[in-house]
Amino acid sequence: MVSTSEVFCLLLVAILWGGTNPFLKKGTEGIEEVQKKNKLLQFLAELKFLFLNFKYLVPFLLNQSGSLVFYFTLASTDLSLAVPVVNSLTFLFTLLMGKVLGEEFGGKGAIMGMLLIMCGVTVCVLSSVSETHGIGARNISET
């Protein structure tokens, strides 16, 4: 059965990943102005631009902390539940945070997509809970 702490961790991962995506996009503004003579120098200059830019670095570190939480949560959570839930909710939080920051929302299609995501996540969670609950009930009655 999915515990409350596992659900909280999966939700936290989705918030950290999805909530930081629009900030990462904003943090990279201006990188196209970095120009160097060869590919290696260009790569190093772009790395320097990103990692000395706190508007990029802070969301990046938050995003990576979400990856750490996800990694540790996978140890106790069913993979077939964790991956679809986190990935779909990440998309939802990216859309919502983008809207908060003034990005284009996408109109009715985006709203329909969010509703379908929420329905899919609900089905995944309910399926996982009912499968786990059913297995436990069978094992108890067999003994």
UniProtKB/TrEMBL annotation:
Localization terms from the record: Membrane
Transmembrane segments: 54-74, 81-98, 110-129
Signal sequence, renumbered to the chain: 1-22
Keywords: Membrane, Signal, Transmembrane, Transmembrane helix
Superkingdom in the source lineage: Eukaryota
Keyword Signal among UniProt keywords: yes
Short name of one Pfam family: TMEM234
GO annotation, biological process: glomerular filtration; pronephric glomerulus development
Family recorded in the similarity comment: Belongs to the TMEM234 family.
Name of the protein in question: Transmembrane protein 234
Lineage: Eukaryota, Metazoa, Chordata, Craniata, Vertebrata
Gene: tmem234
